[in-house]
């Protein structure tokens, strides 16, 4: 199970098996049930989550009382409320398991201790954040440049493994439209 | 001038004056005129830019031929097309000086050499990307949750130094509306 985490580190930084044995001690593992919340609005955001198995989503509840999904994370993706996590402040978000999931997690204090003890992990996390930031920048471009319909089909084409696993009503929420609208444009494309 | 860069590093990582003398050799400085392009669509994105003095913006030209601004950077902010820079591929963006500016910049190869020679800079860039990613995540939330009008007034209130320096037509573009609409909501607020 943790071999997937080791493999992910190996993509960006060189860590020996002996070092990895020490590194993994900074983390814990948690099994979460489908629809279980790892974080709720108003709670201090204490953890950074790495998906070993399963699927997480991040959402907030808007002024109409509706859950607005802003992000998903599948295997080998990291997820947290980064501002709340770094500054140890209450979160405006929920993080919830979409499927039964197995999650590796670390506290902010442990992450800081890990980085002091194994500076090579700065390189690993630098790449993690760099890639996540680059993806977020492209997302802003797409939010401006693509119609909702184009954005949906591009998301499905670029991330087919997502589109198959994510319930349609959550995908609709992530894309910023109603399940009815999503069902309409899918029918249009098929016909 | 470079003391501002040194101060910015000091916020996140400890670097001695002797180390900084070596670190700065990996960078070059460029003076750019107002409206000069540092990067154009279709060019390989070779540089990562740090604003010493002035103001940059990033934009792309949409299918209607209109410049859509997606980002600004003022003093001590980094800017590049991160995907194109990391993968050394042609960019879909322009990066342009909004004001006469003084820019510190580094190539991707030099940044990689710098990180090998001074691993402490991994920590610095990890923080740079972590904060930028956190800000981008909040921006996605605001794009969903705020009306265009709320987003405008929130941006002006949170970043008054931006609102004063950025020409109104560029601010309108960044917020995704026309200069006419911006002028309308500003009048409404004043009256």
From TrEMBL, chains A, B:
Q: Which N-terminal residues, if any, form the signal peptide?
A: none
SUPFAM superfamilies documented for this protein: cAMP-binding domain-like
Q: Which Gene3D superfamilies match?
A: Jelly Rolls (2.60.120.10)
Alphabetized InterPro entries for the sequence: cNMP-bd_dom, cNMP-bd_dom_sf, RmlC-like_jellyroll
Check the record and name the CDD domains matching this protein.
CAP_ED (cd00038)
User: Looking at the record's lineage, which domain of life comes first?
Assistant: Bacteria
Full protein name: Cyclic nucleotide-binding protein
Native species: Arsenicibacter rosenii
């Amino acid at each position: 199970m943790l071999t997937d985490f080791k493999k992910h580190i190996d993509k960006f930084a060189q860590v020996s098996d002996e070092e990895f044995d020490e590194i993994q001690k900074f983390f814990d593992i948690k099994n979460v049930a489908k629809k279980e919340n790892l974080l709720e609005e108003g709670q201090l955001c204490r953890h950074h989550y790495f998906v070993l198995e399963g699927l997480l989503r991040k959402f907030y509840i808007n002024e109409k009382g509706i859950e607005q999904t802003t992000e998903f994370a599948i295997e080998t993706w990291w997820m947290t409320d980064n501002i709340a996590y770094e500054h140890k402040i209450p979160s405006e978000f929920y993080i919830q398991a979409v499927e039964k999931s197995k999650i590796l997690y670390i506290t902010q204090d442990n992450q800081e201790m890990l980085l002091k003890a194994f500076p090579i992990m700065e390189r690993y996390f630098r790449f993690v954040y760099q890639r996540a930031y680059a993806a977020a920048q492209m997302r802003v471009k797409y939010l401006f440049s693509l119609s909702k319909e184009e954005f949906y089909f591009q998301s499905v084409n670029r991330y087919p493994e997502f589109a198959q696993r994510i319930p349609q009503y959550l995908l609709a929420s992530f894309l910023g439209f109603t399940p009815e609208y999503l069902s309409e444009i899918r029918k249009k494309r098929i016909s």
